[in-house]
Amino acid sequence: MDPVTVSGPMPPGPPASLDVRGLAYAYPDGHQALFGIDLTVDRGERVALLGPNGAGKTTLVLHLNGILAAGAGTVHVAGLPVDAENMAEVRRRVGIVFQDPDDQLFMPTVREDVAFGPAAAGLRGAQLRARVDTALDRVGMGSFADRPPHHLSFGQRRRVAVATVLAMEPEVLVLDEPSSNLDPASRRELADILRSLDVTVLMVTHDLPYALELCPRSVVLSGGVIAADGRTQDLLCDSELMGRHRLELPFGFDPRSVAAPVG
Ligand SMILES: Nc1ncnc2c1ncn2[C@@H]1O[C@H](COP(=O)(O)OP(=O)(O)OP(=O)(O)O)[C@@H](O)[C@H]1O
């Protein structure tokens, strides 16, 4: 039999996890925080969002799940427009882990905190229990399920905060300063957890070695615009770029000495 020749255009791949086009935003007091941001993050990428204080990183992140509404431009999450009509699904697809885990933990037990989101989305019984157990196991906190969150260490509470978001089975995990206040072992353990997850990761951080360790790609936001977008190692080695945007490596840290992450 003759081989079949397939011709015509290739079918489109899956939509990008995040697609931000021409995003501009001014706060109600008139302060313009973002000026026309274009950013695409593909499925499964781990990207660090770097930049000095006041650059607009948090403002950008708050647009990704509709906490702030774009003044101009568009945001899509896995092809879905971030707008009032799609808000519930957008918030399921984009999970934000805030810097302070206590902003996300408010129930009497770890299990109840992790169950809160999926239960609110309608999950019940064995399905809900399985969802919670899976999320807690993924962050190595399965044995803490019945403990009160406020009796856990800061690092443990941060992991539970990650689990509360994973329990929603998000497409994108956004982390605000995930390494802050962690000791070196907890820092490494969280990095291992984040690397093991099958989600797109966008990590806001001032911890440049952590960005290098975890994220093959970084985006530098400065003054409300994207100043650079490329391989984390290349950006951190560009001392002129780093200096211009007030990004400082720890004393003696050589970004070339670290094996850059892949994938
Ligand atoms: N609620 C607000 N009203 C007015 N201006 C604001 C508000 N929140 C933030 N801004 C301003 O918008 C700009 C961007 O702030 P944003 O918090 O996004 O920066 P950031 O890059 O996250 O900074 P940091 O690294 O310090 O967390 C800053 O100039 C800030 O002062």
What's the number of helices?
9
- The CATH class of the domain at 18-101 and 171-249 turns out to be Alpha Beta
User: Biggest sheet, strands in spatial order?
Assistant: 6-7-8-3-9-10
User: Remind me, CATH topology of the domain at 18-101 and 171-249?
Assistant: Rossmann fold
What small molecules does this complex bind? adenosine-5'-triphosphate
Output the radius of gyration.
20 Å
Major sheet size, sense and barrel closure: 6 strands, mixed
Low-confidence stretches: none
Shape designation = globular
Task: Please state roughly what percent of the residues sit in beta strands, choosing from under 5%, 5-15%, 15-25%, 25-35%, 35-45% or over 45%.
Answer: 15-25%
Within CATH, the superfamily of the domain at 18-101 and 171-249 carries the name: P-loop containing nucleotide triphosphate hydrolases
Q: Please state the average pLDDT score.
A: 92
Q: Summarize the amount of helix as a percent range.
A: 25-40%
What CATH architecture of the domain at 18-101 and 171-249 would you give? 3-Layer(aba) Sandwich
Distance between the termini: 40 Å
Q: Helix/strand/pairing class, anyone? A: alpha/beta
- SSE order in H/E notation? EEEHEEHEHHHEHEHEEHH
- Beta-strand segment tally: 10
Keywords: ATP-binding, Nucleotide-binding, Transport
GO molecular function: ATP binding
Pfam family, one: ABC_tran
Protein name: Energy-coupling factor ABC transporter ATP-binding protein
